[in-house]
């Protein structure tokens, strides 16, 4: 059996292996030191195109100039930070940039309240440390350590979720491009090509504010939410198709009407205004992002495949909507009920079936 079918989620370098090879073979431009592809080929990998007769699927649908700026940053000694609301494809863009440039997206630090300075620098195998003292064999290298050795890129997800002192462990590394190892009486100097791509949610402001000194070490690019409904519908349709194919769901993809209805509901509740700007709405307590719309419709396909005839119904969509919007039972139930009665109910016959299904779920 093909190994690609044995895992739930493939890293981008394996998922798009054929595309990367086609781009490499067709690449005629000079390669920056340590890069697998030229900047123009990296851009094609991210935004889509063709290479040697092979279709390159777009990995990021949005402002092309922002992608160009991100690639240009990684050509310099500056680190890159991608900021945006949840669901704006920060992690997806980070993974695919790293894949196209270095062919390895596995050097990842996941920022949490439990992330320590050891996760940034290095730690020790304490059994070996006690037995033989500090040594290369006892040293446990962090993803940043390994990226510095190889001239690769480390992805630092949700950096603002880490404590401030942990974040600041990056300052000297990003400034001096060296990592001191006093226990071994030496320093590690970063190989050419080393960089860090960090991501942070705008909704996380105030969790752990980054110091001005750390921010100065990054070029910051803000990834906006999809600017219009057509762009968001396109993103959702594309990703639902890709994810459902990986899950091998025996269901038909959602039709355009179902996708458009879900995206409409999400955009209106997110903005607190109907699309025609005629009615103000109460937004829910949580963020209802493009990523959640994708998850909702993928879940609807699973329902249709397992408990229906393989075709998504309004009942399948309604089941997902309830969970996506009502995150806080006390606050969000009222918001959702008001939206159903004041907006969806009044939209006529084309929305009647979905309204009835949602009302039944809400009772």
DSSP summary: helix tally: 17
Q: Which percent range describes the beta-strand content?
A: 5-15%
Average pLDDT score: 91
Radius of gyration: 23 Å
Separation of the first and last Cα atoms: 47 Å
Largest sheet: 5 strands, parallel
Q: How are the SSEs ordered, and which strands pair?
A:
Elements: H1 12-15, H2 17-26, H3 39-47, E1 49-51, E2 54-56, H4 64-74, E3 79-84, H5 90-102, E4 108-110, H6 117-120, E5 122-124, H7 126-132, E6 139-141, H8 143-150, E7 153-157, H9 164-167, H10 169-176, E8 178-181, E9 186-189, E10 195-201, H11 212-215, E11 218-222, H12 229-247, H13 256-271, H14 290-307, H15 314-325, H16 329-342, H17 349-362
Parallel strand pairs: 3-10, 3-11, 4-7, 7-10
Antiparallel strand pairs: 1-2, 5-6, 8-9
Helix pairs in contact: 3-4, 3-5, 12-13, 12-14, 14-15, 15-17, 16-17
């Amino acid at each position: 059996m093909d190994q690609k079918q044995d895992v739930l989620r493939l890293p981008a370098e394996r998922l798009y292996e054929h595309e990367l090879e086609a781009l490499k073979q067709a690449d005629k431009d000079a390669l920056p030191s340590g890069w697998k592809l030229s900047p123009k080929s990296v851009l094609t990998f991210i935004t889509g195109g063709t290479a040697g007769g092979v279709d390159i699927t777009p990995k990021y649908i949005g402002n092309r100039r922002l992608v160009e700026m991100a690639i240009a940053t990684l050509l310099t000694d500056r680190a890159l930070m991608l900021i945006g609301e949840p669901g704006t494809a920060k992690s997806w863009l980070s993974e695919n940039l790293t894949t196209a440039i270095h062919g390895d997206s596995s050097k990842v630090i996941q920022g949490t309240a439990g992330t320590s300075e050891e996760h940034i620098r290095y730690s020790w195998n304490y059994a070996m440390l006690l037995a033989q003292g500090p040594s290369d064999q006892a040293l446990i290298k962090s993803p940043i350590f390994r990226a510095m050795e190889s001239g690769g890129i480390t992805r630092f997800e949700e950096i603002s979720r880490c404590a401030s002192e942990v974040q600041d462990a990056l300052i000297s590394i990003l400034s001096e491009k060296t990592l001191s190892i006093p226990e071994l009486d030496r320093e590690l100097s970063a190989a050419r090509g080393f960089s860090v791509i960090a991501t942070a949610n705008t909704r996380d402001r105030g969790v752990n504010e980054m110091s001005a000194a750390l921010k100065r070490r990054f070029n910051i690019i803000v990834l906006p939410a999809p600017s219009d409904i057509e762009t968001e519908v396109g993103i959702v349709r594309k990703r639902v198709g890709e994810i459902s194919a990986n899950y091998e769901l025996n269901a038909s993809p959602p039709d355009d009407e179902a996708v458009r209805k879900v995206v409409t509901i999400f955009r209106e509740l997110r903005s607190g205004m109907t699309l025609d700007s005629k009615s103000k709405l109460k937004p829910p307590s949580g963020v209802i992002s493009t990523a959640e719309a994708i998850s909702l419709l993928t879940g609807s396909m699973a329902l249709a495949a397992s408990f229906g005839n393989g075709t998504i119904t309004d009942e399948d969509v309604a089941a997902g909507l309830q969970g996506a919007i009502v995150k806080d039972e006390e606050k969000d139930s009222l918001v959702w009920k008001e939206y159903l009665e004041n907006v969806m109910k009044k939209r006529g016959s084309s929305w009647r079936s979905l309204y009835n299904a949602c009302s039944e779920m809400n009772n």
